[in-house]
Design goal:
The protein is mainly α. It has one domain. Helices cover about 85% and strands about 0% of the residues. The chain has nine helices and no strands. The protein starts with a helix and ends with a helix.
Length: about 220
Amino acid sequence: MKGLLTKDFRLMLGQKKYFALIIFIGLCFVCSGENTMFAIAYVTFLGTFFTVSTINYDEFNNGSTFLFTLPFRRKGYVLEKYLFGALLGGMLWACFVLISMLQIITSGTDIVWTEWFVSVGSFLLLMLVMLSIMLPLEFKFGVEKGRTANILIFGILFLLVFFAEKILAVFDMSGMVQRIGELGVPILAALCVLATVVLIIVSVMVSTKIIEKKQF
C-alpha cells in the first residue's frame, strides 16, 4: 500500500498548478474575513475529487492491465484509494483550519469556538461520505460514466436536503426530528461519526467486491 500511496502522491505533484489555484482561492476567502467556513469546505471537498483523477490515471491507456500484475492485493488497492482521499482532504482541511483560526484570532472576531469546531469537524465527515459514494461508482462504471452517476446522486441528495422541510411535513416526521434534536450535541456528533464509519465499511466492501470481479 505504501508504494500505491507514493504513486498517487507523485501523480498529484503533476497537478501542482491546480492545487496552487485551489489554495489561492481558499486563501482569498479566508483573507476576506467572512468566508472562513466556506474556504475550509471548499479545499476539503475539492481535495477528495483528486482521488478520482488518480483512478483516471490508472486506467489511462489500459494502465490498469499492467498495474494489477504488480504484487499487491486488489483489496489493498481499494483501501489505498480511500486512505489517499482521506489523507489528501484531511491535510487540506487541517491546514485551512489552522489558517482560519489565526485569521479569526488576529482579527479579533467574536465567535463561539465550540460551535465553530463542530461545524468545521462536520466537513471531515461529509468528505468521508463523499468518498464512500464516489469511489464505488468510479470502480463500477469507470471515470466517465462514474462522474455522470456521481452528478446524478449528489443532485438527488441536494434536492432532498433543499426540500427537507417539505418532505418532513409530508411524512409527519417533525416529532422525530425534535426528539433527535433533544439528544444534545455530543450524542448527535457520536451518532454521526458512527453512521459515517458504518457507511465507509459498507462502501469499502462494495468497492472491493467490484474490483475483485473486474477484468483488466
